[in-house]
Amino acid sequence: MAKVKHNNFMDTVDEVISDAKKMGVVHLYTEDEELTGRRVKIKGKDLFHFGTTGYLGLEQDIRLKTAAVEAIWKYGTQFPLSKTYISHPLYKSLEEKLEQMYSNPVIITKNSTLGHLGVIPCIVRDEDGVILDHQVHWSVQSAAQILKTRSVPVEMIRHNNLAMLEDKIKELATRCSRIWYMADGVYSMYGDCAPIPQLLELCKKYPQLHLYFDDVHGMSWAGKNGTGYVMEQLGTLPENVILFGTLSKTFGASGAVMVTANEKIHKQVKNFGGPLTFSAQLEPASAAAALASANIHLSPEIYQLQAELHDRTRYFNSLLANTDLPLVEQNTCPVFYIGTGAPATGYHFVNRLMEEGFYVNLGLYPAVPVKNTGVRITISRHNEKEEMKALVDAMVYHYPKALEETHTTKNKVRAAFKMPYIKEEEKTTVAAASLSVQHESTIQNIDKNEWNSLLGKQSAFDWEGLKFLEKVFTHAERPEHNFAFHYYIIRDEKARPVLATFLTTSLWKDDILAPASVSMQLEEKRKNDPYYLTSKVISMGSLFTEGQHYYIDKQNPKWKEAFQTLLNALEGLEENKDAAMTVLRDFEEDAAINELLHSMGFIKISMPESCVVTDLSWNDAEGYLATLSPRSRKHFKKDIQSYEKYFDVEYRSTASEEELDFYYQLFENVRAKNFGLNTFSFPRTLFTEMSQNPNWEFIVLYLKKEFATNQEQRTPVAVMFCYKNMEHTYVPSFIGMDYRYAEFQIYRQMLYQTIMRAKALDFKKIDFGFSASFEKKKVGAAIVPKVAYIQAKDNFSMELMGTMQK
To answer: Is the pLDDT of residue 163 over 60?
Structure first.
């Protein structure tokens, strides 16, 4: 099995957030000597605050402040003891007030994250199952992952997709006692809501179904006694629903609250709720402020506060309705999301608004898909109508300028959010106008000498190699064997190539670079559904090739414009082909390209390392051995040289169909075990075409008769499929092996024999491809770290596979 270094999700997030920090839109600090809720001071500028989640403004209410101060004087800054033993004097009063609000038993938690970590593993039993909405808050998803250590199935559905939810319920129904669907009441980024009436209907249809809602963004501004959006929809809390509300955000204090109508669940969580048992309890000041807020919630005043906020949200909706700003979700929630598409546009837009005197949040990956970056605006009772009007006017003015600065358009943004197009005037920058784009669907429309001068001598994508690939991977019987080829050459005003590349549109397994444990689970599902979790992908290069699939002249001052021109072309291609993802792959680390692609909405992931042999200057085996390190020489003598006597080696330019069938089976042996780089098989016709093409040959490793199980004939135990690129680069594209003979070190022997063959043919370089880099390094290959940049329509597949990791 190929050893593949998988991408670390946290490294990707770190790259994105670091980029946003560099652009001055995250990790900021307020500089105010005191806060009012209406304004914040950032970088010396007083800004109107449109980023709070304290929608009713209660965090500035004098009654809450006074209660908190008095509690500190009476009880101290904290009560340092687990509330399993004893709670401070305010806890009982707060619990009683909250139970009065909800008309149900409650449990107070330090915050909602600790609350979920305490409650979810407690209420979900080993015989239960869990289904997550893929946009449910991270804290819920994180807590649910703990269940997998107990073998509780954790599944995921696309956001608010009730048909998919019902399918998952049916799938789990025969093996799970209870099925928990976990969702937000109000989602924090777009401000959209859970379809609660439809979920209740599903509960009637499937009595096993239980609902678990995180409603922290629906709290206080909606519902009887301010108990939130979910309670407003439910009316009465059923026993099969668990609800989380918050005592922070709109409630104005700190902490969270779990509500249940099920006395047994309440007792279990109160007796032992993990961090709820062992962590510190809510501080006296927080409990006192929450008590003061609860009194407001239990009074008629709460409805007056709600009405004032609703008036503001209606007004803001009316202002936006008179613009063409892309409001992603329109409803009565105080959360508004204006799409910008690429992060760069978001950075420019936020900074322009800050210069104009308004603070807003940037919605950024991983909270949203990278291509769905946007500005999140929250309305609170602190905001006055005149500054709301001024904000909308500023957005109308600055939004098109941010688009223009980042070479995009309103309709490109709308396409990213699946919104209807509007009529707009398309603008082309002077820089882009000086570039010409040649786009072809076959290499035969590209000048052979020019292509080879730009991209020849590597892997199998010189001009002849691509002609071969087009013949094999077009008009095939199976969808995974059909590639659409796209060739781009972008030239400056003097017709000099600035950028050249080729891409393919093809079907990928979504887990191609996922951990092997995930791929093994998915392959079980694919026994019944071969195309489960597969997507159409536009990829630089192809699934057959490896190496630097692009040429770029970074000495040309227009190279960045050329890259942007290519990306603009790919946006249209992605829409036309209905591709789920665009992948620009096999880059070496390059700070300038990294910054450019991040700003254009691509995120970086680690690729398997590439392996290249560049030193073929030696004359014989002893000369080759001298190029290796002392440790590698020791390895060579023990694991390669000592086994060489067991083998015969043949170099075949052609093979019979019977032989090709055998080679194909050897190849499938390797591919089927290689879950670390999970791809579809190749068509059988590929091997026939290799046998008929002068640029391909087979290195066949035979176990000598005296060592074989069947001593009547030599046994082929391995085959290397090799491409000869322009008499310069030898390309062992992939290998087939019979694992029954692994004891003879056949893989290492084949690597060595490939090096010997390349030298015998006087090639200057060997492209050994990726995977198994440790083994290839031991035979003299240089290891080259590679990265890819991806832009997906949504995060669903990635998050789904995240739930499958063990």
So the answer is: yes
